[in-house]
Amino acid sequence: VRLRDFATITREYEDVPNKIYYVNGRPGLSIGISMAAGLNVVEVGGEVDRRRHELQTITPVGMDLVSVYDQPKEVDTSVSGFIVSVGQAVAIVIVVLLAFMGLRTGIVIGAVLLITVAGTLFIMDIYGIELQRISLGALVIALGMLVDNAIVVAEGMLVRMNAGMGPVEAAREAVGKTIWALLGGTVIGILAFSAIGLSPDNTGEFASSLFYVILISLALSWVTAISTTPLLCALLLKPEAATGEKKDPYGGAAFRAYRGIVATTVRFRGLYLAIVAGLFALALFGFGYVKSGFFPDSSTPLFFVDVWEPEGTDIRVTRDDTLRVSDFIRQQPGVVQTTSVIGGPHQRFTLVYDSREPAPVYSQIIVRTETRDQIPAVWQATSEFMREEMPWTDPIIKALRIGPGRDAKIEARFSGPDPVVLRQLSEEAERIMRDDGYAIDVRNDWRSPVKVPTPVFNEQVARQLGVDRETLGGSLRSFTVGADVGVYRDGIRLLPIRIRSPRDERGDIDKVQDVQVWSPVLNRAVPMSQVVSGYETNWENAVIRGRDRIQTIIASCNPHDGSASQLFARLRPQIEAIELPAGYYLEWGGEYEDSQNAQAGLGRSLPVGFLLMILTSIFLFGKLRQPLIIWLTVPLAIVGITAGLLTTGGAFDFMSLLGALSLVGLLIKNAIVLIEEIDQQIE
Question: Which of 157, 374, 460, 535 gets the most CB atoms within 10 Å of its CB?
Answer without folding.
Answer: 157
